[in-house]
Sequence to fold (156 residues):
Amino acid sequence: MKSPQKSRFGKLVAYLLDPQGKKTRVGEVVITNCVSTDTAWAVREIVATQWLNTRAKSPRTYHLIISLKAGANPEAQTLRMIEERFCNALGYAEHQRVSVVHHDTDNVHIHVAINKIHPRTLTLHDPIRDFITLKICSSSFQNTLSDVCLFQKKMR
Fold:
């Protein structure tokens, strides 16, 4: 087993938490569905869960980026609600994840590193045609919030 820092999930979270010399790059960090509240231990827990599934051939990490319209800067509670709604729509409500808000561009954006392996059933969940689900979820926010742009990166 790779060490948590060398796993794809570990590298992704390390990148998300790296301030890259900017004081305001990293905002709120939220750990969901993990026993640990510390990011280093949460990464270890998630990597251990991923390696319990020995059958999975596809990537075990889903990287979702939710970007808000330029100038929009909602409260942390609103950003948390947005992140939860997208994860629920994709079928990742019970999955372990680390969410990090970034303020380093004109658009506030949320990076969500999701463990595709369910922590109890140890089955891999890979949403089919996720781009359709993301567009529907994004359009539901257009009336209540500023435009939400989506970027989803599949980990290899």
Q: What stands out?
A: The chain has four helices and five strands. Confidence is low (pLDDT under 50) at residues 1-6.
